[in-house]
Automatic annotation (TrEMBL), chain A:
The chain crosses the membrane at residues 20-39, 45-71, 111-137, 149-165, 172-193, 205-225, 259-283, 322-343, 355-385, 391-407, 414-444, 464-488. Keywords: Membrane, Transmembrane, Transmembrane helix. Residues 20-439 form the DUF112 domain. It holds the Pfam family TctA. This is Tripartite tricarboxylate transporter permease. InterPro entries: DUF112_TM. It comes from Marinomonas profundi.
Automatic annotation (TrEMBL), chain B:
It comes from the Bacteria. This is Tripartite tricarboxylate transporter TctB family protein. InterPro entries: DUF1468 (IPR009936). Pfam families: TctB. It comes from Marinomonas profundi. Residues 7-140 form the DUF1468 domain. The chain crosses the membrane at residues 7-28, 40-58, 70-88, 117-135. Keywords: Membrane, Transmembrane, Transmembrane helix. The lineage of its organism: Bacteria, Pseudomonadati, Pseudomonadota, Gammaproteobacteria, Oceanospirillales.
Amino acid sequence: MDTMSLLMQGFAVALTPESIMFAVIGAILGTLIGALPGLGPANGVAILIPLAFSLGLSPTSSLILLTSVYAGAMYGGRISSILLNIPGDEPAMMTCLDGYPMAVKGKAAEALAISAIASFIGSFIATIGLVILAPILAKFALRFGPSEYFALFALAFATLGGITGKNQFKTLMAAAIGLMIASVGIDISTGVQRFTFGTLELFEGVDFIIAIVGLFAISELLFFLERHAGDGLKQIAVNKLKLSAKDIIQVLPASFRGAVLGFVAGVLPGAGASLGSFVSYTLEKRFSDKGEFGKGDPRGVAAPEAGNNGAASGALVPMLTLGVPGSGTTAVLLAMLVSLNISPGPMLFQQNADLVWGVIAAMFVGNFVLLLLNIPMVGIFVKLLSIPPKYLMPIVTLIASVGIYSVSHSALDLYFMVGFGVLGYIFRKIDIPLVPIILGMLLGPEMEKSLRHALVLSDGDWTVLFNSGLSIGLWTVAMLGLILPMIIGPMVRAKMARAKISEKDD
Amino acid sequence: MRINDRVFGMLMLILAVAYGWEATQFPIPFGGHESVGPETFPIMLSIILGISSIYMIVRPDPDEKWAPSAMLIELSIVVLAMLAFAWAIEPVGFMPAAALVVSFLSWRMGASIAKSLITGVTSSVVIFFLFNNVLELALPLGLLEF
């Protein structure tokens, strides 16, 4: 069947009242979470996964809910960037450069509206890209055997640090730790107990949902206490919106360029949303700057917002088609799929066509919902920013714990969650990235299975891992992904730092 | 100062050795040895962890500043409060436990005692009824059950 009719079937799933309801709830919750400084999409999805899971939602409903939260959080991130000059997460950083100066000049409402429109264009175009690219990639990936898959998993870890990765050895270390946690439990193929020390609770391994909430949400609370305890955030008042058609037309080209660049950055392994918004902003600046950028140019708001939302949808391409997430949030979404007993990868498009296309269609619906929510109702989200975090953070933590408790009604899970929170705090202090740990826990079983499968088929001959053109290609990209950042990383970081400094000088 | 990475690297090196050694001790699975057994992958992991730990010890990054010790004590108290909540949720019940932990956290983040208590009690009651009655996920009543 061709893509168009599959997509139409997807819309039949996405336009049921139930699906629309979940898309709307997800969009609202996501925007709220994204708007809060310190909470980004990965945290948002992590906090809501246990809830979706314990509510026993159907796979389609849970995925629609969580992808809307994801998109909503990417939208919401711009609100705190513009009004507080505090990016909710890393990709939202570039929006501060022109968004905050615009707000200072009394154009906060315009900056918010323009960024909402740019976000919409970014997500919308990238979702079209997803519709076109995902089936092609899925078909291609059907040719993968176990040794290609093993190489693909290695590639996923190698590129996870991203082009801007600081210390590649720390990424490797984090991946190894995650994979080691995954190896706890009973070995599926032989029944041998591994690293359980005879503890019954460990026979089934460590639940990654608990690890995700602990590492992300609880460690964030600890960081928040350390940094902001007590201090109020000064917020810029929002003026009345005066946006003419001319203003919108002025930012359209920047938004389209940003959307396409962001999508490409999202699809590429290791690039991700941070690079998406960075590249979109710098190229737009080179393209149309006449000295206004950094002082509140609307195009400087539109380009990175389109870029980071485009990258967010682009990152779903490798996640859905290959089962290899390229970012923290897509890793968390992958965790959701795995816990619903759905294995992402090329087969997903054949075995669960309804689900995949339903979710893709729901992304289109979610985008319209978000645009409608964000233009007239932005005031409500802005109000939320005036609630001091000293009340909000404890409540968010409570909701996260309730979600964890509801999954299996066991207090032991809560102890584990707190334990992972402390670990997450320590890891972040030493600059050990958290995403490879989660990814290792997620991909560990599959990665080991493909290794053993490949080696059993070849009777223990290790060269099987490198004996097809495809696997050699994958290993090459993996090696490049590991080595390139050591050369390019310092350059890009220096540029990002300079962009920030020059903005402060003005 | 470059102490953090060195200390952490050494801890991880110990973990890598212990993990790898434990893997070699797995019992031989039923049906005898295979070319790739349950120990193959863990041994690979211990090697990767070992190499990256040694790199961290040899070429450590500059330290991120740790919080002053007063703040570390503060953070430990907060962690203990969350553990106490985990312990109390069943015997004491969700509402009192949650009200206490949320109030405590708000207070430690700088809210006044009265406002912290209002936040704690309101949020725990709202979340309890939301979960039990709307979402139908049973949270323990604990002491309030009679």
